[in-house]
Every structure is written in C-alpha cells, then in structure tokens.
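Section handout 9: paired folding examples.
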Amino acid sequence: MITLENVYYKYEPEGIDALRGVSLQIREGEHLALIGPNGCGKTTLIRHLNSLLLPASGKVTIGGFDTKDAGHQADIRSLVGMVFQNPDNQIVGMTVEEDVAFGPENLRLPTVEIKKRVAGALARVGISGLACRNIENLSGGEKRLVAIAGVLAMQPRYIALDEPTAFLDPAAAKRVLDIVDKLHSEGVGIIHITHNMAEASLTQRIVVMNEGRIYLDGTPQEIFGKIGLLQKIGMQLPQITELLIKLEESGFPARTDIVNMEDALEEILFLIRKNKD
C-alpha cells in the first residue's frame, strides 16, 4: 500500500505551493491515472513515491516505510520504480543491456542474478533483440521501453509513469500502452500521469488534481460523468464522451458516462433503433 497523509510541499526559493494537504491511498496491483491541468502537482506527487522529494509536512509511506527514513530509501526505491517523461533523463548506459543492468548492479547482486533480471526485463517489454544496441541509435519509443525495462529489473511492486506516450507516434504510443497494460495484468501497480483522456479512461481509477489538491477521485465512469466539474478546471473530455454529449444536445438522449468504444457503439445503435421505432 502507498499512503499519503496530508502532504504539503513547496518549491524553494520560488515559494510555489505544489502540494497542499494531499491524502491518498494506492493499493497494490491498482491501475490509477493521475490527471489535471498543467502545474497542478501531478509530477511533484509521484516524485514523493520513491523519495526523490520529501514532504515539507505530512507523511508518505510505501509498503510501511516512511519516505523520510533515510535508512529505508533503498527499500522504497525498490518498491516504486519511476519512468520519467523524457527517457534521456534516466538512461545512463551506452547499450541497452548496460542500462537495464545499472539498477541491479547498484544493489550489488551476483552477476548471474543481474543477467537473469536484465534478460527477464527485456523480454517482458519485448525488446530482447535490442540488448546490444547503442542507446543513441534507438527511437523515442524504444528508449521509453528501455526505461521501463530498467525499472522492471529492480522488480518493483509499483511503476509510476510520467506521460509515457508523450511525443511518440501512434504506433509507438500503442506499443508502450500495451506493455503497461500487460504489466498491470501481471500484478504490477501502475500510477500513470497523462493528458490523454482516452488513456485515462482505460484505467481502473482516476485521480484528478487541481492547484496542488485532490479534486476528484473515482472510476473513469464516475469522473467523466462529472462534466461540469471537469470543465470548470479546463479539463478535456474523452472524444467518445464529447460525441455522446453532442448527440444529447441534438435531441438524442444518450448516456454521457460511457468511456469505451464498445459501450459507445452499443449506445449509438440503441439510439438508432429507438429513433426508427
């Protein structure tokens, strides 16, 4: 379990209040999307999950460990892996294999165990064939997968991803999302920052932040059903939801809490049949 209790954080010397009394629990194996306007505190929050930042006040516990306890920093970082928005900020090796091995090497694991973890992590994200490739010769999507593999080699219980599909073409973005979905199906907890509402709608739970606070918390259906509250803070809606709203405004009383394509198609077909009758 990850628990944040009344967490405050201020960036100095600017004096920017990034988190203002955030309380949140994230269960093991949960797939959570973290959304909200730019500057609302999303990245600041996830940086508290593996001790990159420490609360000015309040408490963050990861698997029972207080993040302010320096003696458990290694334990905390092995529980929560972080994948940054720009993979170049965390890739350190010259080759893919070297980079993925970096974390396990820092744990001073036996060589045999390191090789086993590297091979397993590369296989899990489907890039075993890139093991000997130079990092400089990889595409943006491939670098993102290397960053995920590097985190997986640490065998975390959770992975926090900061806009994992940003700046990727549709094919590369789909590949990354498929990997994230696969990891969740294997029991890895996912904390997923995104500005893409279609991505958020595919998760189990959405937490909306605004001005450093938790603004909304619920299932995708619950969150995207609160259209007025989302629009109040300038949030977009999934295109599917926007389409159903347009249908409703045009005189077709469609449900507007639908967030996936299959249910939307069923609703539209129902409206067509109803209109014919």
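Moving on to protein 2 of 2.
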Amino acid sequence: MPTKARWVNGILTFYDSTTHEQLGPQAPLVYCDDFVGAGNVVIPAAGAAESGMDWAKKIVGAGPPTVAGVADAANGIIECALTVDNQKQDAGLYHGDQRGFSLEQGLIFETRLKINVLPTLLAEAVFGLIGNWADGPDAITYSAFFTADGSGEIFCEVNDNATDASATSGVTATAAQTKIYRIDFTSVTDVRFYIDGVHVATGTTFAYAATGANAILQPYLGLYKSTGAGLGKIQVDYVRMWQKRS
C-alpha cells in the first residue's frame, strides 16, 4: 500500500509514498489550503481589508508582478510571476505579517509547487517561512525556506538572527517538475529539509535558536529580484502546516 501511518514527534501522520504527501496529520493545530474556490482567484493586496481571507499578496514593482489564482486549474493553483521590466520586484503570497505558527511547537511546513519558469538574471524563487516581510529575502530577520535560481538548483536556508546557514539540497528542479517541499521543526536544533520525501542537505546541521515571538513565523511563497529584467514564475498547489498546541 502506498499510504502508510507513522508517528512523528508524537503526532500520527499518513504518508503517501507515491506522491510524497503527508496526509491527515492528527495534530492539535492543522492548517491546509488547497486554493480551491472562487475566493482564491483574486488575492487581496497586503494591508487591504478582506474578510475571511488568510492570504495577501505583496507586490513590489510597477510592472507589475502578479499573484493570483489560475482559472479552472485542477486542484486549485496560485501563480506568482515576475515581469521582464528592469526594476526591483516582489511577487509574494503570505499571511500579511500575521504570524501564527510556532517553530518551538514542532511545526512542519509542506508545499507542493512547480517552478514553471526558472528565475533568470538576479531573480530567485523563495518558499517557506518568514518573520515580518522585508525588502528582499536576505533582509528578513527570521526565516527558514527553500530558494532556487536560474539553474534550478534548490538551496535550504535557516536564519535566526544569530546564524544564517545555507546549503545546497543537491536537487535540481526543472520547469516541468512539480515537487513536494517540507521543512520539519520537530527539533529546532536540527531543522530538516525534505524534497519529495528525501532528507536533503544532510551535511549541514540547521539550528534555529531564536525563541518566543521570534520563533512565530508565517508562510511565504514567491519570487524576488533586486533589479534587472529577470523573469520567474511559480505555481503553488497547496500549503499544509501542523504543530502541537503548546
């Protein structure tokens, strides 16, 4: 059987070895968005009043870059895209700086996405968890995420405002591939990154030492470039997160 039950950090989870998805985690706090339905076609801008919407889009640049639902896409898809305009751009999907997920409570973040236009020039794709949004991923004080540039090589990064650790995953994604990316905070002294169920960047120990409010983050998925005419596009199928209550 491709689906198997397993216990991780005292939480029962079902794992599909065919798709590499974690299914139905029996955790006190479970968050899942498959981006299905009319409410996901238009994502409100950061700071806009929108009742009942978890997500906001962070748009930087007069191009402008875009963050929106893909019409009639099977399973529900949100697409983030840069434009060719020679300017700083950010096309980010996030919780509008409403941080609610605690790394200290064994958080696990998982997303299924495709980098369907590999970033060019100075552009990069970024997906994972951040503190408050800042101008560029490297300027974000607290974070743990995957990044990818034009080569398709996937990097893993953790920044707790004391140590900024980065290492290659050893995996190169193509524009045709949809992959499942997971970050596991079961142990904050040994944060683990997985791609399609495989533990990657195993030669690096990622530790997240910040605590309290600085360990409460939000999801962020998107693309950024500091300048230039670089392009890039990602399509996000789902975001799942689960953790203990305390």
